[in-house]
Design goal:
The structure is a homodimer of 184-residue chains. In chain A, 30% of the residues lie in helices and 19% in strands. Chain A is built from five helices and seven strands. The first copy, chain A, has helices spanning 3-17, 45-48, 68-81, 101-110, 145-157, and strands spanning 33-38, 56-61, 85-91, 116-118, 121-123, 167-173, 180-182. In chain A, strands 2-1-3-6-7 form a five-stranded mixed sheet, with helices on one face. Chain A has a two-stranded antiparallel sheet with strand order 4-5. Chain A is globular, with a radius of gyration of 19 Å. The model of chain A has no long low-confidence stretch (mean pLDDT 97).
Chain lengths: 184, 184
């Protein structure tokens, strides 16, 4: 077991002792909302938007993009578990703004080591072997953060499995100030 | 703007006032870990595993499954942003244990209203129209929770774009007690 996993389990043991009323929460989110947002480590929805224990479905991927898998999750959310509103939240300083799909493919073809951050993006450290399998994946990199939010909200609003009664909005989280700004 | 969104933005205004040291956090997760877990509203990784502001990438979808999109996110996580460990966390009382893929397709074909919970799963309230587009989606429902964790960890361990140096473990979160149990 890794040191990190040991730490997580030690923290969990204390959490279990103080679990309390949380045991009564159900699988149905109290605030009837599903949030689709980036995996970024600085985005804590319980803090920046008050969505805590039992409140909301939180769906997260690189970029907070409206992928087929995010849509699978959102449909499960409203169809089985009663959410009535979706909120898409991207953020400033996103990793997917710092590369292009082509660069991701080249970096992976070069090696499977972690790339180094350079002034102009990322460069590979070149300790191969890499894998050319990266070319089969759409990495969903973007250059215009506001447009990416609009694209994702638009895709959800037009999807055949998402009914028009579901309210859908799109926001950007500023990682330097914590501020949420509505785009859509 | 919805009432919920108004509430979220009011909470956010107070958060911004107390943002403080968070402004210094970088896009690189401090604990060098990416967690793949379910969207369930009861799973708060900052509480049950001590993964808070700036610590970890958190990737979430219905079930916490190792989908192509989760793999896209995990590869971005280690290749660009330096994570060295992945932790898959499923949970008890999951919505995806209460249906089959076939049932999801039938429920959606019947209507796009929220289904009603019944003793044997979910039944549709039948206020069509529905959509047959649900048949083109793999819903990734499962019956054996531990096996689903093993399947997802195995898929990640064997993926061409995920190097063997990345430590990968799999756990189940008990929504009645808050306890994490390692499966893989």
């Amino acid at each position: 077991m890794s040191k990190l996993l040991e730490e997580m389990l030690a923290i969990n043991a204390r959490y279990v002792e103080n679990f309390g009323e949380r045991a009564r929460l159900s699988v149905f989110p109290k605030k009837k909302v599903a949030v689709l947002m980036c995996m970024d480590s600085r985005m804590e929805a319980h803090e920046f938007a008050g969505l805590g224990d039992g409140d909301a479905h939180i769906i997260r991927n690189a970029g907070g993009r409206a992928t087929d898998d995010a849509i699978r999750s959102l449909v499960v959310s409203y169809k089985l578990l009663g959410t009535e509103e979706f909120v898409v939240i991207h953020h400033t300083d996103c990793g997917l703004e710092k590369v292009t799909d082509l660069q991701m493919r080249e970096l992976l073809a070069s090696s499977l080591e972690t790339a180094e951050r350079s002034e102009n993006g990322f460069v590979d450290v070149g300790k191969g072997p890499g894998s050319r399998d990266g070319q089969y994946i759409e990495w969903l990199a973007f250059t215009d953060g506001e447009q990416a939010v609009r694209d994702d909200v638009t895709r959800l609003r037009n999807h055949a499995l998402i009914p028009s009664r579901i309210k859908i909005s799109g926001l950007i989280f500023d990682t330097r100030t914590g501020k949420l700004t509505q785009i859509e």
